[in-house]
Amino acid sequence: MKIYFLISVIGILLLSCTNDDDSEQSSFIGKTFDHLYFKTEQECTNAQTNQDFFINCHQELSFTDNKKAVIMLTDIRYSVNYTIEGNKIIINASPSTSGFLNNMTFEIINASSLKLINDHTTWNERIGNTLWD
Fold it and tell me: Are 85 and 91 in contact (CB under 8 A)?
């Protein structure tokens, strides 16, 4: 009788487990990834030819929780939804993201680098509070 009880308990435990492992999504929360247009801050400063108009020096993607992120492609920050499917992060376009009309897909290279599939640019995790070392 004890064996049947033990088998029943183990069966219930196994059946109650879900496969909703969002540990991969959790590993991105709080991280910001940058694609730099210039190798150094000085190069970015030198590229500013008009004091009334600032040329953007980078693009960025910040993960705020396991479904939401903020992306800056030009000088506008968009609040977006994302999903992770295998080794891909899909940023979902919406009517409020007029800066891009189609979904954007990033390949996860590793925990600190992403590759934007559309243009093959690498986006690296920002370490600290500055874009450049």
Answer: no
